[in-house]
Amino acid sequence: MAPVGGTAVQDHVALAEIELCGELIIAASAAQERLSLESIDEVLRVAEERDSSGR
């Protein structure tokens, strides 16, 4: 049983990963075929990460 009183710990990295997994599941279920690597990168916003890191 979870403790009472708002002592929940939030792991922001884990929450972000769960959100990305959900977005992948939604994209895969909407696709007619398997997602290409480019489509997966788009859903995961890989190019945005590369641009923001200066690479």
Describe the protein.
- The chain contains 3 helices and no strands.
- The chain is about 60% helix and about 0% strand.
- By secondary structure, the protein is mainly alpha-helical.
Output the number of helix runs.
3
Helix percent band: 55-70%
- Give me the secondary-structure category: mainly alpha
List segments where confidence is low: pLDDT < 50 over at least 5 consecutive residues. Answer: none
Tell me, briefly, the overall form. flat
Number of DSSP E strands? 0
What is the CA-CA span between the terminal residues?
46 Å
Average pLDDT value? 83
Q: What integer value in Å does the Rg equal?
A: 16 Å
Give the quaternary arrangement of the chains.
single chain
Determine the strand fraction and express it as a percent band.
under 5%
Tell me about the largest β-sheet. Answer: none
Order of helices and strands: HHH
